[in-house]
């Protein structure tokens, strides 16, 4: 399946990028790199893509498994190398689940399925990064 994205230069360090969903996003450098900070940073956008991919998987599995979850979020800490081309070499993903009646075993299975089987972005990151995945349960 082919996917097409078009990214158009808007001047200075700012770009607008299409998405197959029909929603566009803006990319810009920070002021320290000649931009105005009016858009997403490309490397951080990759981390958002990683969290979004895993999050969609887990949300789908929560629904299929009929689990009770009040809220969940994914925090990512990533180490950027010092040498060029700078890239993420170590990534820690923290899945946080909140609720009164959390089924920890099934939620962990949902995370594991995303990490090991479903999330294609995760598989791409495995090619260049060391991944550490942790799951945290916060009962109210």
UniProtKB/TrEMBL annotation:
Coiled coil residues, start to end: none
Signal peptide location: none
Pfam families attached to this UniProt entry: OsmC
InterPro entries: KH_dom-like_a/b (IPR015946), OsmC/Ohr_fam (IPR003718), OsmC/Ohrsf (IPR036102)
SUPFAM superfamilies xref list: OsmC-like (SSF82784)
Classification via Gene3D superfamilies: 3.30.300.20
Top-level taxon: Bacteria
Protein name per UniProt: OsmC family protein
Species of the source: Algibacter agarivorans
């Amino acid at each position: 399946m082919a996917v097409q994205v078009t990214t158009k230069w808007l001047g200075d360090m700012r770009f607008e990028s299409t998405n197959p969903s029909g929603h566009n996003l803006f990319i810009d450098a920070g002021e320290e790199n000649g931009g105005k900070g009016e858009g997403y940073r490309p490397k951080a956008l990759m981390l958002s893509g990683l969290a979004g991919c895993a999050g969609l998987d887990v949300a789908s599995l929560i629904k299929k498994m009929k689990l009770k979850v009040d809220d969940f979020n994914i925090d990512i800490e990533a180490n950027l190398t010092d040498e060029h081309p700078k890239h993420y070499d170590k990534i820690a993903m923290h899945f946080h689940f909140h609720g009164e009646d959390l089924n920890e075993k099934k939620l962990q299975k949902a995370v594991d399925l995303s990490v090991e089987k479903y999330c294609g972005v995760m598989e791409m990151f495995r090619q260049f990064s060391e991944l550490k995945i942790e799951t945290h349960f916060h009962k109210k």
